[in-house]
Specification:
Elements (H helix, E strand, L loop, with lengths): L1 H44 L18 H12 L3 H12 L2 E6 L2 E6 L2 H10 L4 E2 L2 H11 L8 H15 L7 H14 L3 E6 H18 L22 H18 L9 H24 L11 H8 L3 H30 L3 H15 L13 H13 L5 E6 L3 E7 L5 E5 L4 E5 H4 L3 H4 L33 H18 E6 L7 E3 L3 E3 L4 E6 L2
Parallel strand pairs: 2-8
Antiparallel strand pairs: 1-2, 3-5, 4-12, 5-8, 6-7, 9-12, 10-11
Helix pairs in contact: 2-3, 5-9, 7-8, 7-17, 8-12, 9-10, 10-12, 12-14, 12-17, 13-14
This protein binds protoporphyrin IX containing FE and 2-acetamido-2-deoxy-beta-D-glucopyranose (2 copies).
The site of protoporphyrin IX containing FE (HEM) has 22 residues, from helix 12 and helix 17.
């Protein structure tokens, strides 16, 4: 009897199990069919057509040929060039296989606008980017999506829309130190490394009210003096590691890195120290002599972790990008004495040797044209991507002529190529490859010019970066008679989280008498 009831129980159990399995399969099938129907409806509603333009893969399953070709191009520092050439040969928008994931590559402003703005909610940051940035950037603005991102943005945005964001006296202090390190007599100097130190000193001063003071250490000196000793090196280290992770995806994990955690901790501990001190000593409503973001943030945010996360996010988002912009401007000017002379004349007329005031900076039109032209040809963030979080549609790229909408299924990555966009001859003319500030006299651009991205996630530091870069340029123009290049090699990319010049910026300055 006991044996009988035991086997009955087993049969009942088995039957229940089978029923569950059948039900799961049924549910899965129904979901698949429903999803397929929804996709079909969406596709019909928008009259989508398949993308016919495809990367001519030799390996259509994993796309290893493209991976190897990209790796080789990156190795030879021709990644960007290779990709652009591909657009000219293949088309503005094409499908490609990225190690088994089928994605879209585009330099079409319509599609970029759809992804970044009109259908903003249908896309998120690349999961690998979030994973790579998380250890250092935590829940800050630059590494999150959705509600968490929206909250960060709401907290930070008002700070950056103040009429006069930055203190020019703070800027002048650091620019003065920078100029002191530049030889007057035509001796060679590598400017890009100095600019990275300059933007680190400036950013830490602006964010924490304490500077790394790397420029005080002399021309060959180490980063990080005084209270922030060791901070800059740890930022550098962590950033390098994150860039590898972003570039290689999970492949980067094949080479474990035990020091990474240590450097992340160093960076966090420094900032936590400043945050604790500010939370302790902060007196509401008391105006400080110079604007410091930390002091402004503690008025609105009480969670020390969130304050730290936002500060480190802004440091990472703003520092290398701005250094890259200023360096690239000098890279070009050292080869273009004609532009240098014209800039010098403009600056002489505006300031007559006096320090620029905040409201005067935008009046220097030719300075602004030059900076825009540098951002056009050498955007510090030249390629970026998003992933569809639901089934959605892009308005172009499908059909034989590439003009029909395309269905984008959930999980599809869309890579958009800003440097490709900025060199389109149909937008910028046949001389698109030429550095020509004058083109900005008449140029009106929208989604064709996106150095700071666009839509709800547009860079919040655009004004800050433009002011900083303009100020440095103006002060150099006031101080030096000429700049010439030492190394004639054309600009080559160095890819990290942002893109800078591979060979640095080797130049000679001569001081005005
Ligand atoms: C020339 C200098 C700069 C360039 C080219 C640049 C470019 C960009 C780009 C392309 C994005 C969008 C990234 C994406 O959505 O995937 C971005 C976002 C951002 N930038 Fe900048 N940036 C520069 C300077 C700065 C500065 C100086 C700051 C702050 C002081 C800053 C703070 C930010 C922040 C916080 C975000 C994230 C915004 C968000 O996701 O809502 N940037 N920047
Ligand atoms: C982006 O386009 C530019 C210019 O068309 C090209 O040189 C570059 O290789 C492209 N980058 C990528 C990643 O496709
Ligand atoms: C430079 O580019 C910005 C977009 O970043 C644009 O708003 C501005 O009008 C441009 N400046 C000039 C002088 O065309």
């Amino acid at each position: 009897m006991a044996a009988f009831s035991g086997s009955v129980l087993i049969y009942i159990g088995l039957a229940l199990y089978l029923a569950t399995v059948v039900y799961s399969i049924f549910k899965f099938a129904r979901r698949t069919i429903t999803r397929r129907n929804l996709r079909r409806d969406l596709s019909q509603q928008y009259q989508c057509q398949p993308i016919q333009t495809k990367f001519p893969h030799k390996d259509p399953i994993l796309g290893l040929d493209l991976f190897i070709s990209n790796a080789r191009a990156a190795w030879q520092h021709q990644f960007l060039e290779t990709v652009n050439r591909r657009h000219d040969e293949i088309g503005e928008t094409y499908q490609l296989n990225m190690l088994g994931t089928v994605g879209i590559m585009t330099r079409d402003p319509e599609i970029i606008k759809t992804v970044l703005s009109t259908h903003f909610k249908d896309y998120s940051l690349d999961a690998e980017r979030k994973k790579a940035l998380k250890p250092l950037l935590g829940n800050g603005i630059f590494a999150t999506d959705g509600q968490v991102w929206a909250h960060s943005r709401a907290v930070l945005r008002p700070q950056f829309t103040r009429a006069q964001l930055m203190d020019l006296s703070m800027l002048e202090k650091h620019v003065g130190r920078l100029i002191d390190l530049v030889p007057h007599n035509g001796e060679e100097i590598e400017l890009q490394e100095l600019m990275l130190r300059f933007t680190m000193d400036m950013a830490t001063d602006f964010l924490f009210g304490e500077s790394t003071d790397g420029l005080l250490a002399g021309r060959e000196g180490p980063y990080g003096q005084g209270t922030l000793q060791g901070f800059a090196e740890s930022v550098q280290y962590a950033q390098h590691r994150m860039a590898m992770h972003v570039a290689l995806g999970w492949w980067a994990l094949l080479k474990p890195d035990l020091q990474f955690r240590h450097h992340v901790r160093v960076v966090h501990d420094f900032i936590d120290g400043f945050v604790q001190k500010e939370l302790r000593e902060h007196r509401p409503g008391v105006k400080h002599k110079t604007y410091v973001l930390l002091q402004a943030l503690v008025e609105d945010v009480k969670d020390p972790m969130q304050i730290r996360d936002e500060l480190v996010n802004i440091l990472i988002a703003g520092r290398d990008t701005t250094a890259s912009l200023i360096s690239n401007v000098f890279f070009v000017l050292s080869r273009r004495p004609d532009i240098w002379r014209k800039l010098r004349e403009e600056v002489r007329q505006h300031f007559e040797g006096k320090l620029p005031r905040f409201d005067q900076i935008p009046q220097c039109k030719y300075v602004r044209y030059t900076i825009n032209e540098s951002l056009r040809l050498f955007p510090p963030v030249p390629v970026n991507s998003r992933v569809a979080v639901c089934d959605t549609v892009i308005s172009r790229g499908g059909g034989a002529d590439g003009h029909a909408p395309v269905l984008i299924t959930q999980g599809t990555p869309i890579v958009y190529n800003i440097s490709g966009l900025h060199r389109r001859e149909d937008v910028y003319g046949a001389d698109a490859e030429e550095f020509k500030p004058e083109r900005w006299e008449a140029l009106r651009v929208g989604w064709q010019f996106l150095p700071f991205s666009g839509g709800p996630r547009v860079c919040i530091g655009q004004q800050f970066a433009i002011t900083e870069a303009s100020y440095v340029l103006i002060r150099f123009l006031q101080t030096f008679e000429s700049v010439e290049c030492v190394d004639e090699t054309p600009w080559q990319e160095k890819i990290s989280l942002t893109v800078s010049s591979l060979n640095g910026v080797r130049v000679r300055f001569r001081r005005a008498l």
